[in-house]
Amino acid sequence: MKRRHVLSLLGGALALPARAAPAAPGEPVAWPEVTLLNGTRWSATQAQGRAVVVVFWSTSCPYCERHNAHVAKLQRAAAGLPLEIVTATRDRDAQAVRRYMESHRYDFRVTLDAAPMAAALSTRRMIPLTVAVDRQGRLKQVIPGEMFEDDVLELLRLAT
Q1: 158 backbone φψ class: left, alpha, beta (φ>0; ψ -120 to 50)
Q2: pLDDT exceeds 80 at position 27
Q3: The pLDDT of residue 60 is above 80
Q4: 108 with 94: CB under 8 angstroms?
Q5: Distance between alpha carbon 136 and the CA centroid of its chain, in Å?
Q6: CATH classification number, 23-159, choose in 3.40.30.10, 2.40.50.200, 2.60.120.200, 3.10.450.50
Q7: Domain boundaries, the chain
Q8: Containing H/E element for 157?
Q9: DSSP secondary structure of 34-93
Q10: pTM for the complete prediction?
Q11: Which of 5, 32, 95, 97 is deepest in the core (most CB within 10 A)?
Q12: What is the rounded CA–CA span in Å between residue 26 and residue 141?
């Protein structure tokens, strides 16, 4: 009896739904709904028919600071194109992130909800980490580390 009870418990545990893995290259992204620093929500609706670049970063990372300057240029160059830029900071202090954004004059979207974004896109924890998703909503690339300005601006091609 005891053995059967243990096996039935294990069977029940094994039947639980597995946690979804991040999209692999070529697979569709299951976008989470996240709250942006300005209090608005961002979800799959904003990604429909648009390419999306997501950058994971932190206010204390000097590589991210240089990388984010390129992301800001990408944001300006993408005006009017079907390209969304959303960044996810690993920081937890919203006021510190606001001060950072203001002091650098960045206006790209930023969320502190990095965990759900990472769950959808990549298990890599390094920063900066840039993720490119095509207009069909499929993961194209996960690019670890700081990128050169030209390489960041090359992400504009996702919008075509």
Answers
A1: alpha
A2: yes
A3: yes
A4: no
A5: 16
A6: 3.40.30.10
A7: 23-159
A8: none
A9: EEBTTS-EE-HHHHTTSEEEEEEE-TT-HHHHHHHHHHHHHHHHTTTSSEEEEEEES---
A10: 0.86
A11: 97
A12: 9
Distance CA 99, CA 23 (A): 33
Task: Determine phi and psi for 9, rounding to 5 degrees.
Answer: -65, -45
**Contact yes or no for 55/71 (Cβ under 8 A):** yes
The position carrying tokens 């609706």 is 45
- In the sheet that holds 83-89, the strands lie side by side as 109-111, 83-89, 51-57, 129-133, 139-144
Question: What tokens appear for 103 in the block?
Answer: 């002091």
Structure tokens at 140: 């194209």
Q: Give CA–CA dist 158/109, Å, rounded.
A: 18
